[in-house]
Amino acid sequence: MPAQNSLPKMNNAAFAGFLRLLLTPLSETPEPSKELGAYLKFLNRVHPREETR
């Protein structure tokens, strides 16, 4: 039986931040918000960045 990779589930605030980012025109900077912060926090959990020295 193959092992299943389970990713963390995105909560409602993170999904709202994703939509806000998706629907913001490229010529504009999205306004900081709790929802956008929740989405960025979710991304950092799913795809952690490696620090380079």
What does this 3D model show about the protein?
This protein has 53 residues and is mainly α. 47% of the residues lie in helices and 0% in strands. It is built from 2 helices and no strands. The longest helix is centred in the last third of the chain and has 13 residues. The protein starts with 11 loop residues before the first helix and ends in a 7-residue tail after the last helix.
Short description:
The protein is mainly alpha-helical and 53 residues long. 47% of the residues lie in helices and 0% in strands. The protein has 2 helices and no strands.
| Approximate shape | globular
Which stretches are low in confidence, meaning pLDDT under 50 for 5 or more residues running? none
Largest sheet: none
Distance between the termini: 40 Å
Structural class: mainly alpha
Mean pLDDT: 86
Tally of separate helices: 2
What proportion of the residues form beta strands (DSSP E)? under 5%
Estimate percent helicity: 40-55%
How many strands in all?
A: 0
Q: List the secondary-structure elements in sequence, H or E.
A: HH
**Whole-number radius of gyration?**
14 Å
Index terms:
53 residues; mainly alpha; 0% strand; globular
